[in-house]
């Protein structure tokens, strides 16, 4: 049987740059919520001074992320990766919304109850991150390397973006009453 494509020039990749932009946005979306948690650590130190939030929250986040990625890697062949990614981003969205609801319901006051709620939300960030990153890296590893680089660049941009936004909000609300809470939310 003769291969009809043997003497033809390869087709030009179409949509590569659009895919790179989309993957960069997905990379930003995969870390912006967790980076936001880390950049408002001064607010959490004011609300929960006895609980050392910048030390404890990463210790809660990481085991949930590692356990989730281990479970999902073990069951990889049975899981629809696209649904996995959508579930992860949905969990990020819900968790971020719950973080705002927690702050509004407690009116920025600390205590063990709100701190446990915060820790639960941080655990859900870890689960969402493992769900999203594992699925995206797995799917994009089968494509051209530039698309994977774009995803990782988006993850790096998330840190710079949240830091810049935090600096802007701190500058805007510096002199106002309740400045840390207004700048954090």
Automatic annotation (TrEMBL):
Keywords: Membrane, Transmembrane, Transmembrane helix, Transport. GO terms for molecular function: nucleoside transmembrane transporter activity. GO terms for cellular component: membrane. Its main location: membrane. It is found in: Membrane. The keyword Membrane applies. The keyword Kinase does not apply. The chain crosses the membrane at residues 21-44, 56-74, 86-106. It is a multi-pass membrane protein. Belongs to the SLC29A/ENT transporter (TC 2.A.57) family. This is BnaCnng70130D protein. It comes from Brassica napus (Rape).
